[in-house]
Amino acid sequence: MDYLSLVEVERIARSAHAGQTDKNGRPYAEHLAAVARGVAERGGSEEQIAAGWLHDAIEDDVLSREWLAGAGLSATTKAIVDALTKRPGEALEEYTARILATPGALVVKRADLAHNSDPVRLASLDPATAERLAAKYRRTRELLGIAAD
Question: How much is the average pLDDT of 34-60?
Answer without folding.
Answer: 97
